[in-house]
Write a structure and sequence with these properties.
127 residues; alpha/beta
Length: 127
């Protein structure tokens, strides 16, 4: 944990460098001290079937969900959301300056009883 999931409109395919973006996201989440690097996973899902507003312009969207394990207090989660949304806004500012673009972000806390995990990456990354 956490899982960083980007859904984006297909008309942005050639305009986003996800390797570069995910590097900034992992740096932000990793330096938080509350998310171990071995648990951070990012992915992007292009949405080819969508409609935005009146569909009369070349609108675009990016919706980001950060799924985190439970147990962190609201203040900690809010601080991390603020820091991460700052990274998101900064990264996409040049794109939003040149086109109509809706950006949204939300954090979801995963219920501790109904999530199952098995991960050997943490042990691999330990010094």
């Amino acid at each position: 944990m956490p899982h960083f999931i980007v859904e984006y409109s297909g008309n942005l395919k050639s305009e986003i460098n996800f390797d570069e973006f995910f590097e900034k996201v992992h740096e932000c989440l990793g330096k938080s001290g509350i998310f171990p690097l071995g648990g951070i996973r990012s992915r992007a899902i292009r949405m080819d079937d969508y409609r935005i507003a009146d569909a009369k312009h070349d609108y675009a969207f990016i919706h980001i969900t950060l799924k985190v394990g439970s147990g962190r207090d609201e203040e900690t989660r809010k601080q991390e959301c603020d820091a991460l949304f700052n990274v998101i806004e900064t990264y996409f500012a040049p794109l939003q300056e040149k086109r109509l673009l809706a950006i949204s972000f939300e954090m979801q806390e995963i219920h501790p009883v109904f999530t199952y995990k098995k991960n050997n990456i943490h042990a691999f990354l330990k010094p």
